[in-house]
Amino acid sequence: MNLQNDRAIKEGYLMLEEESTVRSVAKIVGFSKSTVHNDVTIRLKEIDYDLYIKVQDVLNYNKKIRHIRGGEATKRKYQSKKKKN
Questions:
Q1: CA 73, 29, 39: angle at the middle one, nearest 5?
Q2: 10-residue mean pLDDT series, the chain (85 residues)
Q3: Which of 73, 15, 67 is nearest to 39 (CA)?
């Protein structure tokens, strides 16, 4: 295996462990979100299809709840501003 394939597998397992987002995995491995996304959607499909399917479930779940996460982040933002004033 080459380094890119090893990286894609590592990223896939990291994503599965905690149902992590692409952004959080990118921070851990030190690559861009684009690289991680390409690794787990394109490269992983050719390397380990079973892992790819599991990662797709996590990606779909994250996509499904992203509006909730965004709302929570906005709520925290305005609560912290309110405390400062």
A1: 95
A2: 90 93 95 96 95 95 83 82 72
A3: 15
